[in-house]
Amino acid sequence: MDIAEAPQPVYRQARFADLEDIAAIESEVFGEPYLYLMLRQLFDLHGSEWLVAEVAGTVIGYALTLEKSGRALLFTFAVAKRYQGAGFGRALLNQTLRVCRDLGADTVYLTVRPDNHPAGNLFKQAGFEFAEHDDRYFGPGEPRDLYEYRLHP
């Protein structure tokens, strides 16, 4: 499926009713997803910072960005597998970067599993720069590559 062949996504702030769809995408994409209770608590604390992409009434992707003092963390980001490779991830990322800019961030950073080549490539193609590798970012056996993106006014 190509983004040109599909209905254009609607980007909007997530609603509580979207959490089950977000959890399903999280599980499908990452295999070891956040527990629903963690997603619920993140939503309770940061609901206004969740962005979803919706096609024909179905949530196909989401992003959670946390901003503080001009730095934004792209905390979690995923697109349902059926919609991957068709430009939806790049479109959602572009919308997410706009939100970060609107929040006043000048830098966006994120982490990616080193073996998640599709995500790493997406972020590099969007202009994120490799910052460092940490073998224990999330504890023993949980390495991550850190990337940064400088937003321009």
UniProtKB/TrEMBL annotation:
One of its GO terms (molecular function) is acyltransferase activity, transferring groups other than amino-acyl groups. CDD domains: NAT_SF. The keyword Transferase applies. InterPro entries: Acyl_CoA_acyltransferase (IPR016181), GNAT_dom (IPR000182), N-term/lysine_N-AcTrnsfr (IPR051556). Keywords: Acyltransferase, Transferase. Transmembrane segments: none annotated. Residues 9-153 form the N-acetyltransferase domain. This is N-acetyltransferase.
